[in-house]
Write a structure and sequence with these properties.
Helix 15 runs antiparallel to helix 16 and helix 17 runs parallel beside helix 19. The protein has two domains: about 70 residues, no CATH class; about 300 residues, Orthogonal Bundle (ADP-ribosylglycohydrolase fold), CATH 1.10.4080. By secondary structure, it is mostly helical. The longest helix is centred in the N-terminal third of the chain and has 24 residues. It contains 23 helices and no strands. It starts with 7 loop residues before the first helix and ends with a helix.
Length: about 450
């Protein structure tokens, strides 16, 4: 059995990429690995075709330890750590002031956030891992370009389907002809788990609580990339505070960002409190830009429940991100592109030219795409989620985040019925107590958590 994101021999190439991005001279480690027969190609799918021989696997573990040490040493003497801190206090010191917002969210807007997150995720599920060119070929062949609705296999020519096969796990549940409720997805599992954590711990939430919830409630096979690496570390008795730091080259990928919406919804109109709430959750698996992505989305989510325009939402999101970080630069780039008036093709070409070297699950490229989609569409749900998916990176996660922001901004009643009706007000989940739960119930529970923070019922 070949598990993604965990075999030491499959992590080395990814770890070399991340260490180099952190300013580490990886030449000697790369030479050692290559001379022993290891691959320098970072597998996009997270696992190579076959297992390594025992000596090569042992060497992989040693080199991963070495890269972890080199990265820690580099961080300790790097000026970049001042501009791009990990600790919450250092991040808060760089927060910029923003105008005050209302602090009471309408229940319809909370409901819209949940529905928008599910619908945007579902839109991207069947084409996850398909590159931009393939998504376009499928959509054009089925009369859905630009993408403005769920994908279908009806009318898809066999040669296109063979060249660009649907996501294997999602095809049976995520095409318009077979959708019957929201199928299970980590983008929804993590949101529901965050709700339960805030119900239990509120403002006292710590990383240890998040770790215990993962071990108690999340099957290991339902988490990926940085989350799977951190899960492995927890099972190896690594303290939750350090679980993100060991053999985890995915710590600046998108995983923490997709866990952050509910932290915002629990703090309507209070982006700073939302970001502070998201930090201990993100800390379990991510650092630097991976952390900032979570704070960005949490702050946007808090704003989207009460603001009246997408510009305010994006500015509130940026206000909690260290301004000299790569994440902040990517968001600013996406916003500027969305305001530029350039065509969709030109804009997506520009994003891929700027960030296409990053893995399709990295937080920086996907954040630029999210910012572009929200800005170009002016927060309109169908257009914005379509752009997020047409961008061709992490289609379901980018679609979910964009959909959640748009849904919270508009409210549930304003969302297109073609997106909402197939959800049938239920979501599948392996989380105890959540399988089949309705989005209206999730909204009511979120409203109760928000009321504890604001002292006022929606």
């Amino acid at each position: 059995m070949r598990l993604t994101w965990v075999q030491p021999e499959d992590l080395v190439a990814h770890a070399l990429v991340q260490a180099a991005a952190d300013g580490v001279d990886v030449g000697a480690v790369a030479d050692s690995w290559a001379s022993a027969g290891g691959s320098l190609v970072a597998e996009a799918s997270g696992a190579s075709a076959g297992p390594a021989v025992a000596p090569l696997r042992e060497l992989a573990g040693e080199l991963l330890d070495r890269l972890d040490r080199l990265t820690a040493e580099r961080a300790g003497r790097s000026a970049a750590s001042i501009d791009q801190p990990d600790e919450l206090a250092g991040i808060q010191a760089q927060w910029t002031p923003r105008p005050a917002l209302p602090v009471v969210a309408d229940l319809d807007r909370l409901h819209g956030g949940w529905l928008g997150r599910a619908a945007g995720c579902l839109l991207g599920k069947p084409v996850e891992k398909i590159p931009r060119a393939g998504i376009r070929a499928i959509a054009e062949a089925t009369g859905n370009w630009p993408v403005r609705g769920y994908f279908t296999a009806a009318g898809l020519p066999a040669e296109i389907g063979d060249r660009w096969p649907w996501n294997r796990r999602s095809r049976p549940t995520s095409l318009v002809e077979n959708i019957a409720g929201m199928p299970e997805d980590d983008d929804l599992n993590f949101a529901m788990l965050a709700l339960e954590l805030l119900e239990q711990h509120g403002e006292r939430l710590r990383t240890e609580h998040v770790a215990q919830a993962w071990l108690n409630n999340l099957p290991a096979g339902r988490v990926f990339t940085a989350e799977r690496a951190s899960y492995r570390n927890l099972l190896n008795a690594v303290a939750p505070e350090r679980a993100a730091l060991i053999h985890n080259p995915f710590r600046e990928w998108i995983g923490a960002l997709i866990r952050a919406d509910v932290h915002g919804w629990a703090h309507p109109g209070d982006p700073r409190a939302a970001a502070s709430s998201a930090h201990p959750d993100a800390w379990l698996s991510h650092r630097r830009n991976g952390l900032y992505g979570a704070l960005f989305v949490a702050a946007m989510s808090a704003s989207a429940l009460v603001a009246n325009d997408i510009d305010t939402v994006l500015d509130d999101g940026l206000s909690v991100v260290p301004p000299r970080s790569a994440l902040a630069g990517a968001v600013r780039h996406g916003v500027a592109l969305g305001r530029s008036g350039r065509s969709l093709d030109e804009a997506l070409d520009e994003l891929h030219a700027s960030y296409g070297a990053l893995h399709w699950v990295h937080v920086v490229n996907n954040s630029a795409l999210i910012a572009y989609a929200l800005t170009a569409a002016r927060g309109e749900f169908s257009t914005a989620t379509g752009i997020a998916v047409m961008g061709g990176w992490d289609t379901d996660s980018a679609g979910a985040t964009v959909g959640a922001v748009c849904g919270a901004l508009s409210g549930a009643a304003a969302l297109p019925d073609a997106f909402v009706a197939p959800l049938q007000n239920r979501v599948a989940s392996s989380l105890p107590g959540f399988d089949g739960i309705g989005f209206d119930e999730l909204a009511r529970r979120t409203a109760a958590v928000a009321a504890r923070h604001t002292g006022r019922q929606p």
